[in-house]
Design a protein that fits this description.
The chain is built from two helices and ten strands; from the N terminus they run ββββαββββββα. By secondary structure, the chain is mostly beta strands. The strands form three sheets. Strands 3-4-5-10-7-8 form a six-stranded mixed beta sheet. It has a two-stranded antiparallel sheet with strand order 1-2.
């Protein structure tokens, strides 16, 4: 199984597609940024990670994530998309969503990796999307299992 650098990292990597609509991004293009509405009503500016390269990099080597930002990972199909925190410098909340954008699992205050091998975090149910937030933000913004997030994916880039 591949361990790459996403979300600090995603182990299983899908192709660039969402709901049957391919979204092409070149390896050198910056990720799209879209509004993502949390259950509390707070809107985050979220980087959309579609390409393998973007998903592999995720939040690695960043010193922080602005409080009004998040990161949204898209996959070709639902699966137990696993995350690890290799090369991450700060704790995050990891939120897994199904195809209807309903939260199926939340890992709160996941710390950066301190040992080799790094712990791996997986949802209890298959997910289509993964969202990364600042640690503690999921609970504060009512992002709990069963609630929904709102966002519209970019048509193409």
């Amino acid at each position: 199984m591949l361990r790459s650098g996403v979300a600090c990292s995603i182990r299983r990597i899908g192709l660039a597609a969402a709901f049957g609509t391919a979204v092409a991004i070149s390896a050198t293009a910056a990720p799209a940024v879209i509004p993502l509405k949390l259950p509390s009503g707070k809107v985050l500016q979220s980087e959309v990670m579609i390409s393998d390269e973007d998903r592999q990099m995720g939040l690695m080597f960043r010193s922080s994530l602005p409080l009004d930002h998040g990161m949204l990972f898209l996959f070709e199909q639902p699966d137990f998309h696993a995350i690890w925190m290799k090369n991450c410098k700060f704790p995050i909340d990891i939120v897994w969503l199904d195809e209807q954008k309903t939260i199926v699992h939340v890992a709160e205050k996941v710390p950066p990796c301190q040992a080799d091998p790094c712990p791996v975090y997986e949802p209890l149910r298959k997910a289509f999307y993964v969202v990364e937030l600042n640690a503690g933000q999921a609970r504060k913004e009512k992002a709990v299992v069963g609630s929904r997030l709102e966002f519209t994916l970019p048509a193409s880039r």
